[in-house]
Structures are given as structure tokens and as C-alpha cells.
């Protein structure tokens, strides 16, 4: 076997390394161009879904007064409407300022709906606000995807291309969910985020509902010698209300022994949708204004706060409420009753707050939907939890 000339081998390695160094930028450029081409296809897909959401929204608006051609320009201008959060460098009063901005934002939405759909009744108008929100979300998703794709194309930055490609599957899933959400809002169907509101509605049968806080209602009922004050957003229009403000006012007028809150909660991949779990604390998402009110008043009066959550994915939260989540609502009702029996005594006053968007869910058992669509089929080979549901 001939001996290897070390000097020749080293020379070959140096030459190959030099060639690789020369070709690397070119190879990265080629990879970047291929990646940008793939991203452009994804941008086109997101654009198509944004257009579909826009079409659904305009169709829903046109049913309440003005034809599409008369509202298109104002609708398209409003798709980029924004709200600026208050400064947080000086935290004093930041939540009060944030609530003011959110109230102003809501009034602007109400004004736009009143102009675009002058014949809409209050419940339909509330649904149209949600329809516009769905179209805005999909349009924003498309705009950001387009921005970063064009930026990657302009800079030929392979790292940026790879970073965008990593997020494309999630963005596509979200855009598809936003289309389904916009369609559900237009039809006034309940969505996954409404599980808390549905639980509250099912707890009340024929009691009279009152609305001391705008878009937020409560009713009283008796259970095993306790008085339950059940709180939810006013339905069946698409609203989330101000449950924190209503809970605060109720506690200021009543001697409340306990607060029980029911809401949707994000699940991890592989976990069971509709699973009900318990914890403590104010179970309420979104801007922290309402959560802060509940925590503040509960702390001041030393009232325990229980949290009961129904697990679901982000996409399930904005899609039509399915059978698995509806079964979770029935389990949550039993869990609330069990908590009342075990943690309170006869004569106590308990606030039960069903948190979430109440679209398609009215007040009381008679105004709640009875049929729900089947949940989406599981992916082939999807890993499922090996643990049994807690309930």
C-alpha cells in the first residue's frame, strides 16, 4: 500500500477549504433565493385567507343596511386601526389608563359598525364587531408575513429566511383559524373561548338577569342552602364585558364568602381538549384591567378565589365550540357544585364568574345552544397523553 504524502494531503485540504470559503456566500445566496421563493408562496396563501376573511366580513355587514360597494373603502381603512398602550415606565395608574384606552377603542368599533351597518340590532352589532376583529387579525398576519419576506428578499439574509420558515407552520394554522373564527362570528355561533360563559348560563335556569355594568350581567340562584351570584358577559352578541368591575361592585354591596371563576385555558400539545382542572387565582385572560380589579377587591376583603379552567388550544378558542369542549362545560358545572359544597357552608354568598366571549350564548339555560360540531380529527400518529383525565 503506497504511503500517503502528508504534504500533498495538507495542500489538498487547504485548497478545498479555500474553495469552500469562496463558494459559501454564493451557496447561501442560492439557498436564500430558494427559501424566499417558498416564503412567497406562503405569503400568497396568507393573502388569500385575509381576503376570505374580508369577504366574509363585508358579506355580514351588507346584510344590515348598506351594500358592499358603499362600505368597502371605510372598512378597508379600518383594517389597520390600532390602539397604543399607555406608558409603563411610571406604573402608577397604568391599568386605569389602559382601561380608558380600551373603552375608547370599543367606542370607535361601535361607531364604525353603526355607520357600516345602520340596521343592525344590538346583538348583531356586537357580533359584527367580532367579525371585524377576525378580519383585522388575518390582515395583520398577512402584512407581517409579507414585510419579513420582502425584507429577507432585499437583504438576502439566510438567517432571516430560516427564522421566518420556522414560524410559517404556526402562521398558516392561525390564519386558517382566523377565517373559521370570522365565519363563526358572522353566523353568531359560540366559540371555544365561550366555555366559561356557557357554564355560567347553564347554572341559571329561570332567574332574572340584571345588567348593572355595561355588557355584563348577573343572576342569583340558590344551591344547597347557599346563594350563588352568577356573572357573565351579556349575550348572545359577541361580548366579553367587564366581569371584574361587576364582581367588585357586588362585593362592595354583599358579604361574599368565596369567588369561583371559570374560563378557558391553553392546553399543551398532547393534552386532552375539554379536560377540567382546578387551581386558585383570578382565571381571566386578555388585558389585565379586569383581573386586577378582582385580585384587588378579593385581597382587600380576604375572599378566597378558586379557578376552574377548561383546556383547549389557541385555535380551538376562536373556532366554533365543539362537542369535547361542551362536555368539559358539563364537567365544570359539577366541579363548581362540588367546590361550593366542600369550601362553603349553608348561608354563604358565592360569586360564580363565567369568563369569556359570550357570542351565541344568551342568558340562562333556555338561551344556550344544544348542538355542537364534532371536534377536528386527530393527526395521524399524534402523541396522546398516557394519563387519564382528572375527571
General description of the model:
The chain has two domains: 12-187, no CATH class; 192-367, Rossmann fold. Strand 1 (210-213) and strand 2 form a beta hairpin. Helix 6 crosses helix 10 (323-343). It starts with 5 loop residues before the first helix and ends in a 37-residue tail after the last strand. The chain contains ten helices and seven strands. It is globular. It is an alpha/beta fold and 391 residues long. Strands 1-2-3-7-4-6-5 form a seven-stranded mixed β-sheet. The model has no long low-confidence stretch (mean pLDDT 89).
Topology diagram in text:
Blueprint: H1 6-62, H2 68-78, H3 94-116, H4 122-155, H5 158-187, H6 195-203, E1 210-213, E2 216-223, E3 226-233, H7 243-253, E4 258-266, E5 276-280, H8 289-301, E6 305-312, H9 314-318, H10 323-343, E7 349-354
Parallel strand pairs: 3-7, 4-6, 4-7
Antiparallel strand pairs: 1-2, 2-3, 5-6
